[in-house]
Amino acid sequence: MSNNSTISELVAWVQRAHRLGTIGELLGWDEQVNLPAGAAEQRAAQHAVLAESLHAAASAPRIGELLAGLEQRDDGLNDDERAIVAQARRDYNRATKLPTEFVREKAIQGSRGYHAWAHAKAQDDFAGYAPVLQKNLEFAQREAAYLGYGGAPYDYMLDKHDPGLTAAAVDRLFGELKRDLLPLMRAIVASPAATRAREVAGRLRGFPVDAQLRFLREVTERLGFDYTRGRIDVSLHPFCSGTGSDVRMTTRFKEDHPLNSLFGAMHETGHGLYEQGLPVAQLGTALGIHAGMAMHESQSRLWENQVGRSRAFWRSFEPRWRELFPVQSAGVTSDELHLAVNAVQPTLIRVDADEVTYNLHIVLRFELEKKLFAGELAVRDLPAAWRVASREMLGLEPANDREGVLQDVHWSDGSFGYFPSYCLGNMIAAQLWARVRQLRPGIEEDFSRRDFSWLLAWLRENVHAPARRFSALELVRRVTGEELSPRHLVEYLRERYGGLYLG
Fold first, then answer.
1. What is the pLDDT of residue 29?
2. Residue 437 placed within a domain
3. Which of 252, 315, 304, 275 is nearest to 446 (CA)?
4. Does residue 426 belong to any structural domain of this protein?
5. For a Cys staple, 300 with which of 222, 257, 267, 347, CB 3.0–4.6 Å?
6. Is the whole-model pTM more than 0.85?
7. How far is CA 343 from CA 154, 287, 501, in A?
8. Cβ neighbours of residue 463 under 8 Å, at least 6 residues apart?
């Protein structure tokens, strides 16, 4: 059999497994958007059946045979084919090392965990949720052991989301960031201008949800999101799932916090644009999947922050905003609106955090996760540890677990190791932004004309098109010419917020 025909057959097998996975994503989206409360157990059973089918497809012996044959004839493969084989081998090895029964049980636990978390958050009941979280932690440790990471389970969780990433690498990057970010944050928060910004933001009240939805839909379409291949709905916790042919995004609305829904939607749109930029014909292979969650988060954060919080962006969209909200915007000047968009105030809730303080929320979670996996922190002690870390990092202590350890959905289905991707994504976004400004110094003039086409085209070519030919860290190096560093993020924050608050 020729390499071409073997590669084609391998791709067919890999894509079959991938399509089963996309069905699971649809079930998960529906679970958080539409599912009746009484259907939770049925959905858990559906997840289990699908997980078994996906596991069988991903671990099919024929995939192993095809991989072995291609690996023996490696000299006859081109670079793209080698990338396909390497990713397929990684996925196949992981699938074959996980027992089917474990996969089934983990799928059920993940579904039940989500509903347990939603109930616990509503009731502020960490004690009732703790056994679920403990079981999720045990599942994660068992999975790491099956894959040969028994001595370093947290490295495995990081590697699941960002291939090649280790706790030591994250420690180094986060340590450098925290060293420079904490004094900057404290200086900004103490600034008189910060008090004024928070006062203006507090005046943005009573924004009708239907008009908020209309505005964010217009904004996200203008950024380039294709609504013929996606949609946006409402969920308890904003997220984006699916692939370029069918992207499902969500946000949430509050009449007295209108910027939250907008920036949440722009954040998820960044994810959606990345997925829509991947070649549909190659979905499931290394040529059609993203480079890792840190790179994915860089896309969401870049559109949300570097673009969405810029003065140029609001110069173009402010007239429409005032048209939709004439009464609510009447007492706010353009300068005040820009301050409100970039208001800095430590908050207990991660998804409500501003750009300056947001990364400290991630450092907090990373440090707690490390201790959980190292056995240095028991699940039952998480609330107390969270309160201490929050006080030390943010100067705030949650009054209850709803605004502390229960606020995030991630741990409910065992997604440990995901949080660092957010902060790494901010670093990557800032480094990409620095490169963009070198190449196109007048990029913000484009934004003031509602023209985001150059930026999207550049990202399509340099970030989206490479897919998973390279890891996120290698892709950063290739695109920007240097290793990932927190330096660009700190410089970006000093430039934008220093000018507003410390000038």
1. 94
2. yes
3. 315
4. yes
5. 267
6. yes
7. 35, 40, 10
8. 274, 277, 291, 295, 298, 299, 432, 475, 479
Bridge partners (DSSP) listed for residue 230: 247
**Amino acid 16: pLDDT:** 97
Q: Calculate the CA 101 to chain-centre distance.
A: 29
pLDDT digits (tens, 9 = 90+) for 378-425: 999 999 999 999 999 999 999 999 999 999 999 999 999 999 999 999
In the sheet with 230-234, reading across from the earlier edge strand, the strands are: 230-234, 246-251, 240-243
Q: What CATH number has the domain bearing residue 382? A: 1.10.1370.30
Q: Which residues constitute the domain of residue 203?
A: 167-502
Residues with Cβ within 8 Å of residue 474, at least 6 apart in sequence: none
Instruction: Give average pLDDT by consecutive 10-residue segment, the chain, 503 residues.
Output: 85 97 95 94 95 96 97 92 97 97 96 95 97 97 97 97 96 96 93 92 96 98 98 92 94 94 95 97 96 97 98 97 97 96 94 93 98 98 98 95 96 96 98 98 97 98 97 97 97 94 85
Distance CA 355, CA 352 (A): 10
Measured distance between the N- and C-terminal CA atoms of the chain, rounded to whole angstroms: 68
Exposed, middle or buried: residue 79 (CB in 10 Å: 0-12, 13-18, 19+)? exposed
Answer yes or no: do 255 and 373 share one domain: yes
Separation of CA 230 from chain center = 18
Q: How many domains does the chain have?
A: 2
Statement to judge: residues 71 and 174 lie in one domain? no
Residues annotated as catalytic (active site), given as ranges: 268
Instruction: Examine the domain organization and report whether 292 and 188 are in the same domain.
Output: yes
Q: Are residues 397 and 324 in the same domain?
A: yes
pLDDT computed for residue 2 by the predictor: 62
Q: Please give the structure tokens belonging to residue 168.
A: 């030591």
- Residues 281 and 352 both lie in one domain: yes
Amino acid, single-letter form, for residue 435: R
Burial category of 56 from C-beta neighbours within 10 Å (exposed 0-12, middle 13-18, buried 19 and up): middle
Residues 22 and 243 sit within 8 Å (Cβ to Cβ): yes
- Is 147 inside any structural domain? no
Q: State the DSSP code for 247.
A: E
Neighbours of 441 (CB within 10 A): 9
**Token pair recorded at residue 125:** 């009941």
3-class state of residue 332 by DSSP: coil
CA distances 144 to 157, 163, 303, 406, Å, are: 8, 14, 34, 25
Report the candidate in 308, 321, 316, 379 with the shortest Cα–Cα distance to residue 140.
Answer: 379
173 and 120 together in one domain:
no
**Is 175 among the domain residues?**
yes
- Six token digits for residue 375: 């056995």
Same domain? 40 vs 174: no
Last residue of a domain, one of 128, 159, 180: 128
Report the alpha-carbon distance of residue 486 to residue 458 in Å, rounded. Answer: 22
